[in-house]
Structure prediction request, 333 residues.
Amino acid sequence: MNSLSKFYGIYFLFKIEEVMTFRKSFVIFIMGPTACGKTSFAINLKKILPIEIISVDSGLIYRDMNIGTAKPTSFELLNVPHKLINIKDPTETYSVAEFFHDAKREVKNIQYRGNIPVFVGGTMLYYKVLLNGLKSSPKKSTKLRNSIINILKNKGTQYIYNFLKKKNSKLIKKVHPHDSYRLFRALELSILCKKSSLIENNMDINEKFLDNICQFALIPKNKHTLYNNIKIRLQTMLESGFEDEVKMILSKKNIHENLPSMRCVGYRQMYKYLTNKINYNQLVHEIMKATVFLAKRQMTWIRSWKSLYYLDSENKNLATDTLLTVLNKQQYI
Prediction:
């Protein structure tokens, strides 16, 4: 740890009450592409700052999905608890709206305890709703959702696509015929709203709750370093029992390939492998390809993001010092 990090560690150790008195309320975002080391970086940051971590990862919400999502270990979670991890079964869905309200509750509780909420993860849509607020949306119906799931299972995505194309050609232009999740949501909205104009106008910001956000992106200077990290992570997953993990999940009732949990990178491909749709070499290739694509997509989001401070994921000590310096200059600490 560099001198500045050591300084802040000592400073917070002995002057915590004084710091808490003068620090204005704020939150930290630590975003970045998959396999760049966001979780380990945040866990180490806990040694220096009075933070509590809120996960921003649509895969980590699921119980029993540990290896394929690179979830923090039980030991890590025991020592540094993460909010919004292990809150859903793989058979359940979890909307952006649910995340928004859960995050709002966690921020309130963390700040009440006098700590700093730190959002850590790579689900960029979650960050977007935190920044821009929650858009108005019709109330969901569990009965309707179950009906749509049955339609998907029995008649497939093409049937829903054709149905929506007749009902709302403007809306369906945004959806690929094989994108089961977007088709699911489009059909749900079209039924709930009844009129397409309500869907198209469903963009008004309804609610915000965050002020004083200091945003950081942990990224590698060299993309080849990131791709190598992805390759190593994939190898570790496969050697750590990822196949058995997915077999166990598939043994549960009501698990099928159209669930959001089974669309997570790695799980979608392993599902295909276990149902004899691809062989082992194709499995490895497809997971690697999908993960690299995910990282590229995350980087595209990050490059277009405003008000970001960049941290070098290949030099965690320097990244920590940079973060602390920014917080100090912004008079947060």
